[in-house]
Amino acid sequence: MSKAVRFTVGLAAAATLLAGCGNTGNIAGGGGGDRYKLGAMFALTGPSASIGQDFRKGVEMAVKEINDAGGIKGAKIDLRLEDGKGTAEGGVAAMNKFANLDKTPYVITSTSAQSLAAQPIAAQRKTVLVNVGGSSPDLLNLPFLYNDAVNINAMGPALADHLYQKGYRKLAFIGTADPFGEGSVNTMTPTWKKLGGTVVENQSVKASDTDYSAQLLKVRQAGPDIVIATAIGQTLGQIVQQAKAAGINAPMAGPLATAGLTSVGGKAAEGFEDISMSVVDPTKAPGTNAAKFATAFKAQYNEDPSWIPGAGYEAVYLYKALVENALAQGKNARDGAVLQNLIQNATFPDYMLGGSEVKFLPDHSVGRAVTLREVKDGKFVVTQTIQAGQK
After folding, report:
1. What is the pLDDT of residue 3?
2. Long-range pairs for 52-56 at CB < 8 Å and ≥24 separation?
3. Of 12, 122, 359, 391, which is least packed with CB atoms within 10 Å of its CB?
4. Which CATH architecture describes the domain 36-150+281-367?
């Protein structure tokens, strides 16, 4: 491993997003062959499309800011966007295009399945892959894959401890049969049992399902006093809504909830607790990169940003920092192997919570602040900030 590298990057003035962009393709970043290619693949279609579009907002916003400020040492960023669909198949198709056709040295990805499928191609073609959404433990210790999303290995035990301290003892799981859902069970269970709690039920569902009544009946019959629901986007909202309709009165919680929980779950989502990355209230961290991002995002979209566009935004500025660092050392900044050597153990600014730094750890996970939240009146309210993933 290389020695730790500290990056210091500024934040260009906020600007309006590129107009008239299609779902995928080359988003203008300046003329000529001197541009720095940047790939990004998100679920732009399918059940997780709303999340993918939010990641896209953050990425495009950062690219626009950097390019409007003159690019990186005078060269613009050329953003290549692909629909990875959030699936393994979509991840392979998108990564093949980035690595073999576009020759892109740095790609932003999300979701565990998509990222895991893309990683072997990234390693073979020496392309740095930065995951901003997937949290499966399987994402760790893989060549050329770095995770700027706090892993469930760190979040699961922290959430389990929080819920146990609140007095819950009988836990039931229900979640999607994928690396995210399985990772939640596998990381929370040992901590829960070590604390003295019991797991009374564990049910899994397919992300493509819409009726969870059979699984929820078994959860209700087990008599839990807390239910952990793990799913992405609208699927989580559907599970929570159907759980209440099925007569499950126990409180519910889970990792990395998104707006799909509240938009679909409605009143059933009230009181749901989660552990997640978050974006700072800009009034509480004035002058920070995170506050500038949050202010600019709200000015553009008339809404407070969640961690999702924040993660995409941060990953672009990380790319900028890597390129600048490579140039400062006289190295080829368009070579993925060079960027890989620089990113190992790197420390860089936090564009989401502010006042802290983000650090890649030896296992390619990230050490950063995360928040415990609760849904109140249809909104996520931060109840506590903790440090997750430090080693």
Report:
1. 39
2. 52/83, 52/84, 52/86, 52/110, 54/258, 54/259, 54/306, 54/308, 54/309, 54/312, 55/108, 55/110, 55/132, 55/133, 55/308, 55/309, 55/311, 55/312, 56/81, 56/312
3. 391
4. 3-Layer(aba) Sandwich (3.40)
Where are the extended beta strands (E) located within the chain?
25-27, 36-42, 77-83, 106-109, 128-131, 145-147, 170-176, 198-205, 226-230, 252-255, 273-276, 347-349, 357-360, 366-376, 379-388
Classify domain 153-279+372-388 by CATH number: 3.40.50.2300
Note the pTM of the prediction, 2 decimals: 0.85
Using CA atoms, how far residue 151 sits from 16, 129, 365, in Å, is 32, 16, 7
**pLDDT mean over 349-375:** 87
**How far is residue 338's CA from residue 368's CA, in Å, rounded to a whole number?**
25
Tokens of residue 173, six digits: 């799981």
SS3 176: strand
Q: What does the alpha-carbon distance between residue 45 and residue 117 come to, in Å, rounded to a whole number? A: 18
CA distance 244 to 254: 16
DSSP state of 101: I
Which structure tokens are listed for 138? Answer: 């399987």
Q: Encode pLDDT of 196-215 as tens digits.
A: 999 999 999 998 899 999 99
For 294-318, write each residue's pLDDT tens digit: 999 999 999 999 899 999 999 999 9
Residues 6+ apart with CB under 8 A from 19: none
Domain residue ranges in the chain = 36-150+281-367, 153-279+372-388
Give 75-100 pLDDT, tens digit per residue.
Answer: 999 999 999 999 999 999 999 999 99
Residues 6+ apart with CB under 8 A from 181: 175, 204, 230, 231
Give the C-alpha separation, 4 to 360, whole Å.
9
Residue pLDDT, tens place only, 368-377: 888 999 999 9
